[in-house]
């Protein structure tokens, strides 16, 4: 059985377990990281040199980095194309998500609203990140076709992008008016595996005074 090392409310762990659940691949998730610790042991560092989550172990081998793990799962168990160009067309949207959505949403907006006290917030940084997100989210909204990026089943881009939308819509900041993105998120929210693994309350991550 595959083992996912990482706490359930980690935004980097969530797309991995959502993907496995959608594909019906049996797995076990272990509480590692954050308040659970366990990432600084020699054994864990041998699997994940950066001491972060998630880490996937499969048949005695280990793999770190959420995006790499997702590619592995989709190539082995999912619907990832074997044609190099078709695969790259999907992968580029996952890469764009990591480059143009994640850095503004998590290290800036989430950190300022949930991990920084109100008196210490950098409102200029929030405004700048929100403006950049409007541009990026418009591009993603224009790409969605129906309920998913690639047809009847989620693909690699859905897992990497869709997992971020629960926090994107759950935080109080100025967002672009994008009905297509709203529809896409609504469709994801109807999926049982998305509800189980992505739509987890993250209010407990807010520090006192934030």
Helix proportion: 40-55%
Structural class: alpha+beta
Computed CA radius of gyration, to the nearest angstrom? 17 Å
* pLDDT averaged over residues: 96
Strand order of the largest sheet: 2-1-3-4
| Residues in β-strands, percent | 5-15%
Ends distance: 40 Å
Number of strands: 4
Strand count, sense and barrel status of the largest sheet are:
4 strands, mixed
Order of helices and strands: EHEHEEHHHHHH
Report on the structure:
A 4-stranded mixed β-sheet has the order 2-1-3-4, covered by helices on one side. The chain contains 8 helices and 4 strands. The mean pLDDT is 96. 53% of the residues lie in helices and 8% in strands. With 210 residues, it is an alpha+beta fold. The chain has helices spanning 14-23, 42-47, 66-77, 84-114, 123-143, 156-170, 179-189, 192-197, and strands spanning 2-5, 27-30, 55-58, 61-64. The chain is globular and about 50 Å long. Helix 1 (14-23) links the parallel strand 1 and strand 2 (27-30).
Compact description:
By secondary structure, the protein is an alpha+beta fold. It contains 8 helices and 4 strands.
How is the secondary structure organized here?
Blueprint: E1 2-5, H1 14-23, E2 27-30, H2 42-47, E3 55-58, E4 61-64, H3 66-77, H4 84-114, H5 123-143, H6 156-170, H7 179-189, H8 192-197
Parallel strand pairs: 1-2
Antiparallel strand pairs: 1-3, 3-4
Helix pairs in contact: 1-3, 1-6, 4-5, 4-6, 5-7
């Amino acid at each position: 059985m595959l083992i996912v090392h990482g706490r359930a409310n980690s935004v980097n762990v969530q797309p991995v377990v959502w993907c496995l659940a959608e594909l019906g691949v049996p797995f076990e998730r272990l509480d590692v990281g954050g308040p659970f610790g366990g990432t600084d042991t020699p054994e864990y560092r041998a699997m994940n040199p950066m001491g972060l989550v998630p880490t996937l172990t499969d048949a005695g081998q280990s793999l770190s980095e959420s995006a790499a793990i997702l590619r592995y799962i989709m190539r082995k168990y999912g619907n990832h194309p074997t044609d190099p160009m078709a695969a790259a067309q999907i992968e580029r949207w996952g890469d764009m998500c990591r480059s143009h959505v994640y850095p503004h949403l998590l290290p800036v907006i989430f950190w300022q609203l949930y991990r920084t006290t109100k008196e210490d917030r950098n409102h200029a940084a929030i405004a700048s990140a929100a403006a950049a997100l409007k541009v990026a989210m418009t591009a993603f909204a224009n790409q969605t076709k129906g309920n998913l990026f690639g047809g009847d089943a989620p693909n690699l881009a859905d897992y990497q992008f869709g997992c971020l939308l629960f926090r994107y819509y759950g935080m109080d900041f100025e967002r672009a008016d994008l009905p297509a993105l709203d529809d896409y998120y609504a469709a994801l929210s109807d999926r049982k595996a998305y509800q189980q693994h992505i739509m987890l309350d993250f209010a407990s991550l807010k520090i006192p005074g934030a």
